[in-house]
Design goal:
Length: 364
């Protein structure tokens, strides 16, 4: 390893020689530097104030020079100092360049590899149908509302004119939240069996007139099969104002069904019963598969039952502080899955919930 020796000869030729051998040692050592740590050792070996090679050159060569050679030696020592400093700096720069080249090499993208295709999702057919139903009513000036899926006995039943222990409750096989016996019956929680509680919640919040559609998820204690699911969706509608009649109900629903299934579709209203509407009806549409001639879907009748409806029972107005002498209204409720199955010609409701991409892709 290079070290600074005492000089016996200060002739220009001898000084040339020692300078040359110092520079060649410097170049050789610089060529070995591979990383930052090695560079620091190199820098200190050559430039440290205490005992670095430059310091030794100063102390040994320059201070030991005879008076006649002082000038010449001083000039050379200065040149060597500049050469060392320059070399230390260049080596550091080369190291940095090499580092970023290595990083770039590591980050290089192989553009010949096949790409990752990100599948873009689509609206689920049930949600899509629900939005389409809602937009038909929006176009008629209805606003959109929502309510909780975990509901109280009061909103799901009592305020809708299903008294406690009334047999009408049996028509909606209910999933109750456990451990509620300590509460008054009206506060006990359940999973709402229909979207009708939001009729009451809406009327409690605002005075008449009301025109609202309420899309949402509902639950019933049903065993899953081709036409039943314990979780499904409904769209509820409510219109309350002065002078609303059964004709408004018929006209509104007839228009909605035509907007939805096409202008040739006909509607039929048959008497039915719901505790919260009086009179109540089941609404049928002419079968869209056979145009009313009779087929497998409509069980040869030409008609398909699609929703429940009726004039709001005046008893409900008592629960929400409306004056039943002044206002009247109608309500309706429809199953979204049932309508989606009609629209898309499906015969198994379970397909909506399986999450099978092959099924869902067809709606893209
Ligand atoms: N809530 C009723 C059901 O789920 C449907 C309905 C809504 C009927 C509004 C009349 C009026 O069966």
């Amino acid at each position: 390893m290079y070290s600074v020796e005492k000089l016996a000869d200060y002739s220009p030729e001898a000084l040339d020689a020692v300078a040359a051998s110092l520079l060649s040692a410097l170049a050789q050592e610089a060529a070995q530097i591979a990383d930052e740590a090695a560079w620091k050792v190199f820098r200190d070996r050559w430039m440290a104030r205490k005992n670095g090679i430059l310091t030794q050159v100063n102390d040994i060569w320059l201070k030991g020079a005879p008076a006649t050679a002082k000038r010449d030696t001083g000039r050379r020592v200065n040149e060597l100092k500049q050469a060392v400093e320059a070399q230390v700096e260049t080596t550091r720069e080369q190291l940095a360049d090499a580092g970023s080249e290595a990083r770039l090499a590591a980050e290089r993208v192989d553009i010949t590899l096949p790409g990752l295709r990100r599948q873009i999702g689509v609206e689920h057919p049930v949600i899509r149908t629900m939005n389409e139903i809602v937009s038909v009513f929006r176009n008629m000036g209805y606003s959109v509302g929502e309510g909780p899926e975990v509901e109280t006995d009061y909103y799901n039943f009592e305020s809708l004119n299903f008294p406690a222990d009334h047999p009408a409750r049996d028509t909606q096989d209910t999933i109750f939240i456990a451990g509620q016996q300590h509460r008054p019956q009206r506060d006990r929680l359940l999973l709402r069996t229909h979207t009708s509680p939001v009729q009451i919640r809406t009327m409690e919040k605002q005075p008449p007139p009301v025109r609202i559609v309420i899309p949402g998820k509902v639950h019933r204690h049903d065993t899953p099969d081709a036409t039943h699911s314990p979780v499904f969706h409904q769209v509820e509608g409510l219109a309350v104002d002065r002078g609303i009649t059964f004709c408004d109900l018929k006209g509104t629903l007839d228009h909605a069904m035509k907007a939805f299934f096409g202008s040739k579709v006909q509607t039929k209203f048959q008497p039915s019963f719901f505790p919260f509407t009086e009179p109540s009806v089941e609404v049928y549409i002419s079968c869209i598969f056979c145009a009313g001639k009779g087929c497998r879907v409509c069980k040869m009748s030409g008609w398909v039952e699609l929703l429940g409806a009726g004039m709001v029972d005046p008893a409900l107005y008592g629960f929400v502080g409306y004056n039943s002498d002044e206002v009247s209204g109608f309500a309706f409720g429809m199953g979204v899955e049932r309508i989606a199955m009609m629209m898309y010609g499906l015969d198994d409701i379970q397909q909506f919930y399986l999450g099978d991409v092959r099924f869902l892709e067809q709606f893209a």
